[in-house]
Amino acid sequence: MVDVPPKRPRRTLRSVGDGELRLRHRVVHGYRRAYRMAGEGPALVLIHGIGDSSDTWGELIPDLARTHTVIAPDLLGHGESDKPRADYSVAAYANGVRDLLGTLDIESATLVGHSLGGGVAMQFAYQFPERTERLILVSAGGVGGEVNPVLRAVSLPGAHLMLSTLRLPGMRLQVDLFLRLMKLLDTDLGQDAPELLTLVDALPDATSRSAFIRTLRAVVDWRGQAVTMLDRCYLTEGMPTMLLWGDRDSVVPVRHAHGAHRAMPGSRLEIFEGAGHFPFHSDPARFLALVEEFTSTTSPADWSREHWRELLRAGRPGTAVGQPDTARNRAVERDLREASERSAT
Q1: What is the pTM of this model?
Q2: pLDDT digit string (tens) for 111-129?
Q3: Is 221 marked active-site?
Q4: CA atoms within 13 A of residue 314's CA, in its CB half-sphere
Q5: Widest pairwise Cα distance in the chain
Q6: What proportions of the chain, in percent to the nearest 5, are helix, strand and coil?
Q7: Do the Cβ atoms of 339 and 224 come closer than 8 Å?
Q8: I want to staple 344 with a disulfide (CB 3.0 to 4.6 A). Which of 81, 179, 227, 290 is the partner?
Q9: How would you label 108-139 residue by residue, b for 16+ Cβ within 10 Å and e otherwise?
Q10: Which of 63, 188, 192, 249 is catalytic?
Q11: Exactly one of 53, 89, 115, 139 is catalytic; which is it?
C-alpha cells in the first residue's frame, strides 16, 4: 500500500478593499514608520530596495493579500517614514523590521526582500531565525561584490552635490532622455528605465538625499558591495528559500543569483528572462504565481536551538572547522574568500 500525503487545505480567497492599501503609521523608538498592511492569513513581509518605498509593491499587494497578511514597510529613511540622522546599516534595518512586526502582533513571517531589502531579509533570518518562516530573495544585495558603477560613485565624497544637481531645472528631462535612449538601445540598464526615474523623483530634498547616501554607504563603497551574508548562507539549511532574478539585471548581476544558490543549501532559483533589476514589475503574473506556489507547497522553517548550534559548530562547507566539500569549494571559493572581508553581524 502506498502512502498518499494529505492534501493541503485550499486557501480561501478574499477581496481586498482600497482602504486596506492605504499608508499607515506607527511610532517606534520615537520615529514614525510608514507601512501598508492588508489581507488575512500567514504573514508575508515585503521589503523594498534602496531609494524605493512600499509603493513598489502596490500593484502586487491586492493579489498577495487574498491569501496572506501582507505587511510592506517604508524602511527608515525611505518613503513616508522619518529620515533621521541614524543607523542605516543592514543589521539596524533588520531590527527595525522586527520591532515594527512586534507592534503589529506578527510573531513570524515569510520575508520577501528586493535588492537592499533582500540583504535586510537575509540579515533578519540570521538575527532572528526563530521568526523567519521562509525567504524569497529578489535581485538581492549582499551576495557578491559587484554593483552598478553609479552606486559606487554615489558612495564617494561629494555625493550630496552630485545628487543635488538632479533637482536643477531641466536635469530630470535629461535623465529621462538618457534612460529612454538606453531602453531604445536595448541595454540592460534600459530594462529598468521607469523604475530608475522613480528613484530620482524619490530624492526631492536634502533630507531624503542624506538618508539615501547614509544607507548606500552602509553597504557600498568605491570597490562595490561592502557587506555580505555569503559566508553564513549555510545557516539557511532547513529554511525554505527561493531566489528570483532577472537575467539582464544591471544593478546586481545575475551571476550573484547562481552564487547564492550554490551557497544556500536546498534553495530554489528562478530566472526571469529579459527582466532587469525589478522582475516583479517585468512579469508580475509569474512573480505572483511563484510566491503563491512556494508559500503554499513548503512548510515554515522548523527552527531549533540545537540544530542552529550544530550548524555553527560544523561551520560552512570547506572551512577548517566544517567538512570539506570540494565541488562546492571550486564554485564559490573566490566569493567566500572575499566575503571574509565583508561580513556584517
Answers
A1: 0.83
A2: 999 999 999 999 999 999 9
A3: no
A4: 16
A5: 76
A6: 45, 15, 40
A7: no
A8: 227
A9: bbbbbbbbbbbbbbbbbbbbbbebbbbbbbbb
A10: 249
A11: 115
